Amino acid sequence: DQLTPVTVDPEPMYSGKEIFSTLFPDDLNIKVKSKFCKKCEVCEEENCLYDAFVVIRNGKLITGTIDENSFGAMQSNSILQRIIKDHGNALGRIFLDSATKMLLYVIRQNGMTMGLDEVYVHGHAYEEIEKILDDAKTESNKLIDAFHDNDTTILRRAPGRSMRETLELRIRQVLAEARKKAEETAADFIGDEAHSVIMTKSGARGNILNLGQMSA
C-alpha cells in the first residue's frame, strides 16, 4: 500500500527498485559501485548512464543495479554487511531470508537462461576481435624474433629472469591483454540486457572470461 506505481495504465505497475526497497531498514544509507561499472574517467554517481552506481537513501533504492558488489556477504561495504553492522545479526538474517525468497520468486516467474544467440558475435565486433587476436600474434612473433636475434631494444631482460623466461613473461602479458580486450568487445556487443551478461557481471554464474571464450 505504501508503494507508488510507475504507471497505472492499463494497470498499476511497480519498479523493481521500489519493490526491493521494501526489504531495507528505513535508516539504511549506502553508496557503492556495482560490477556493471564501466570505470569512466569521471564517475557520475547517481547520474550514471549505465545505472551502475548504487545509491540507497533512507531505505529507498534510488539508483543502481543490485549485484554481488552491493549485496554480497563477502563484500566489506555491501548492503548485508551494513545492515548487520547497524542493526545486528537478527535483522541481517531477516533481510537475507526475505531477499532470497523474493529473488527466487522472480526467477521462477521470469526465468534466467541463455542460448547460443547470446554469445554469438558477428559483424563489426567479430572483425574487431579478429584484429585484436592478429595484433597479439604479430606482437608475440616480434618478441620471438627479438629473442633469437638477441635484440635487447625490443626484448629487455626482466630483473632476476633469463632471456627465455623474459620472453615467456612478455608473451603471456601480450596474450592476457588481447584476451581482456576481446572479452570486453564481446560483452559490449552482446549488451547488458542479455541473460548471459547479467549472470556473469552480477556474479551469479560464470565470469566474463567464460563469456569471452565462448564468443571469440
Automatic annotation (TrEMBL):
The lineage of its organism: unclassified sequences, metagenomes, ecological metagenomes. Keywords: Coiled coil, DNA-directed RNA polymerase, Nucleotidyltransferase, Transcription, Transferase. GO terms for molecular function: DNA binding; DNA-directed RNA polymerase activity. SUPFAM superfamilies: beta and beta-prime subunits of DNA dependent RNA-polymerase. GO terms for biological process: DNA-templated transcription. One of its GO terms (cellular component) is DNA-directed RNA polymerase complex. Signal peptide: none annotated. Transmembrane segments: none annotated. It holds the Pfam family RNA_pol_Rpb1_3. The keyword Coiled coil applies. This is DNA-directed RNA polymerase. It is an enzyme of class 2 (transferase). The keyword Secreted does not apply. Residues 4-118, 150-216 form the RNA polymerase Rpb1 domain. Residues 126-184 form a coiled coil. PANTHER family: DNA-DIRECTED RNA POLYMERASE, DNA-DIRECTED RNA POLYMERASE III SUBUNIT RPC1. Its EC number is 2.7.7.6.
